[in-house]
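Deliverable D5.2: sample structural annotation.
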Amino acid sequence: MSADDGSTASRHDPALAPFLSLHDVDAGYGETQVLRGVSLDVKQGEIVSLVGRNGAGKTTTLRTITGVVAPTAGSITFRGESIDSLDAVDTAKRGISLVPEERRIFPKLTVRENLEIAAYGGAADREGLSIDAVLDTFENLAERTDNPGSSLSGGEQQMLTIGRALVSGADLILLDEPTEGLAPYIVQDVVDAVRDLNERGITVLLVEQNVHVALELADRNYVIDQGEIVWEGSSRALEADEEVLDKYLGITA
């Protein structure tokens, strides 16, 4: 199912070839199939969201893109080249960075040390932002450069994981539930940070349980249910589709 509100849903040229493309992708864990024929496209410069209930296959989709989970069928291309046989290290070298829900910062290292480590093993042919530029972007981190990661708040840890992706030279960032567990006023800081990095030219695929955040940020949205894409369209169209919001996302008007 798809929807089109008749307007230009994205501020980007729809004629551009997809930056990232999944076509009929199946994937899972052992004998458990999670994704069933998932197809989605992300154009360069877009923010695209993937939303759905818990267990719908959102995180598995991101892990399959990055090579943590190997697809059992279908194809994945990035910049027009196949990446479905690459592992996580080689995918990162292509310029794709996953910001995981668990954040996975190094708790005993300082903020600056966490950022310094991110410069290694990232995109092979592109330099990321300098550490000073990242700290200028995230003022809270700039005030805590010598603090260990374990002393940061949840929101600050999320900023640090995004900052590491910027330092690594990624030009496609996969964000997995970036606002999960954060206070409302911190959620807005994360929203502003995602918008800022997108304005720097970084493409974003956003997995988000908070549908309102997805609607605020995304140019386009995909809804996934039981491992299948069941709807796609603009934020305006999704916000107006009460049936989809209720059936697949548990949101009632």
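Annotation notes: The mean pLDDT is 87. Strands lie at 18-29, 32-43, 47-51, 73-78, 81-82, 96-99, 172-176, 203-207, 220-225, 228-234.
The annotation will be released with the project's public dataset once the embargo ends.
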